[in-house]
Amino acid sequence: MPTYYIHIKGIVQGVGFRPTIYRLADKYQLKGTVSNTTDGVQIYFNATAKKSSLFFNDIKSHPPSRAVVTSIEIQETEKREYEGFQIIDSHGGKDRSVLLTPDFAICDECRSEMYDSNNKRYHYPFITCTLCGPRYSIINALPYDRPLTTMDTFNMCPDCQYEYDDIEDRRYFSQTNTCPECSIKLSVSGQSGNVIPISSVIQAWKQDLIVAIKGIGGYLLTCDATSEHAINKLRQKKNRPSKPLAVMYPDAAMLKKDLEISSEAISELTNHVSPIVLTRSKKTPGTGMVKAAIAPGLNQIGVMVPYAPLMDLLLHHFKKPIIATSGNLSGDPIEFRNDRAMDNLSEIADLFLHNNRGIVVPQDDSLIAFSPRHHRKIILRRSRG
Questions:
Q1: Residue 40 belongs to what domain range?
Q2: pTM higher than the cut 0.85
């Protein structure tokens, strides 16, 4: 039987492409291999001309939802017989043209699991799957595979390994897979005694304290957005007297209490990128958000909703908006290493919430706005996502 080769380029790694190919190969009862390479995804398989065409067109028509395919080609190649279909080890090459996959905001399925008391990942702040979680920020080298990311130090427990190996599971070949049994760990600095990380942050916000939180792309400096005292303290300590601050809301429903926001803006806030969106504030915010202290003299505020499960959990329990601004000294890049954050932000933050997943590429949040008349999206800062 002839052997065919398919080469796919674009944002095609860390988006569930190999599991998708495996399932399609199973559908067409094909034998062959699929792998990540430094120039995309490569597929070799045995098939008749008719079946190869059906397989190829199915891939083109039904790529993974997070993928961006820039090129897909098929050709007959040197004949080779395969036994079964396999996802094989990734390999490098001279051509390093694969597009880097961005970090993805928490998906609806993971959020639902995180709040399901019967789920093993209930309240687990680092829940991910093939559709969501860090990608770009944790890559040490290409192609994208767990051993080449900062996830390489975390060994999967038997349950996570079973999910990873199960073609029917939505975490099949999910490179960031962990759970409470093999977890990424939280730690708190700035508080003594027996510390419960999530509760400590909530209590600190209630006491008008400033908390530095390590997120997906680096540290955020946070405080209660309804406390003028906390906001002014953050401004003074960060030497940021008047520049507007971003506000993070627990969800879109609460955000609507404070802002005049379009459906287009809501869609951007809640998609897999989840950027900061500039939008007009109401005269009297319903949550008590202190507009004058957050964006002095302006009628627009940069807002966002949690894109990381950790932040989602924190705001779910706090039930109010927070200030979420880059964790850095004025004029410096965002802090992303635990030790350096402690050294450089200790004069600003009263409490630190760290985790032991490394960050390779730090990133600020992307910022967008919409034109007032035609509601066209304007990218003001292209970064995370």
A1: 3-87
A2: yes
